[in-house]
Amino acid sequence: MIRDERPDEVVYKGSIMQIEQPGWYCQSCEEVVLDGPDSAVAEEAFVRLKADVDNLLTPQEVALIRKKLKISQRKASALLGGGPRSFQKYESGTGWVTRSMANLLRLLDSDPNRINELEAAHEGR
Ligand SMILES: [Zn+2]
Question: Taking the model in full, what pTM does it have?
Answer without folding.
Answer: 0.86
